[in-house]
Amino acid sequence: MMDLSNLDLLTLQSQYMRQDGTTKALCAALTPVLRSLAGTIESVLLYSRIDELSGPILDVIAWGYHVDAYDALASDEEKRRMIRNSSMIHKFKGTAYAVQKIVEGVFGEAGIVREWFEYDGEPYHFKVEIYCNTRGVGGADQLRAAELINAGKNLRSELDGLSLILSQGMTECIAAAASFGALVEVYPIGTPDTVDLRISSTAAQSATVEVYNLEEG
User: What are the Cα distances from residue 136, in Å, to 165, 187, 193, 198?
Assistant: First the structure.
């Protein structure tokens, strides 16, 4: 690969032309000009640098890729998603897969297409479930999604609506404690009274111990 910043135009000439005075003069004059373009040549690359681009440049790229129902007022992140998904949507346009990619482009979340026979709907109707795990959904987002879905679906099918499923992760903490004990009844020697002593223990079982006076043999 040629490095334009270190280009020497004379070295690209044939051995014979390197001896020509006019050629050497032209190469000496043009080499600095070509080297000065090295820092700006990357600006010609658009799609490969889409993550670095924003605003009107993304709008121009979207126009070139024929992005359906493109929203110039959307955020740069949403514009990039719509541009990336555009070719796939055009390829599978009219299918449930294309509708799912449209939902991902608008919300950045997964979408599931439910056919009419999955929820006892009217024939050839469908609805879309959108799982919003990382962001909320406003009215403008819903209207834009419906517009894009209608542009990407087949003409026969009818959209019944969008179902927004909001979820939030949480950390579940579970704690437990156990307490064990034993009941000991002690009968002192020579004393008929019974004394109850409650002794804490770490044993998992309990037992009753009965102690009686010693009998003389």
Answer: 10, 72, 74, 59
61, 50 in Cβ contact below 8 A?
yes
pLDDT, tens only, 111-128: 788 888 988 889 999 988
Extents of the domains making up the chain? 4-42, 46-166, 176-217
> Do the beta carbons of residue 101 and residue 89 sit within 8 Å?
yes
Q: State how far the Cα of 87 lies from the Cα of 105, in Å rounded to an integer.
A: 12
Over the stretch 30-39, which tens digit does the pLDDT of each residue have? 998 888 887 7
How far apart (Å, rounded) are the C-alpha atoms in residues 194 and 196?
7
* Alpha helices, DSSP H, located in 11-130: 21-36, 56-64, 76-91, 96-107
How crowded is residue 53: how many other Cβ atoms within 10 Å of its Cβ? 19
pTM of the model: 0.53
174's tokens: 């579970």
Select from 84, 76, 73 the least CA-distant residue to 144.
Answer: 73
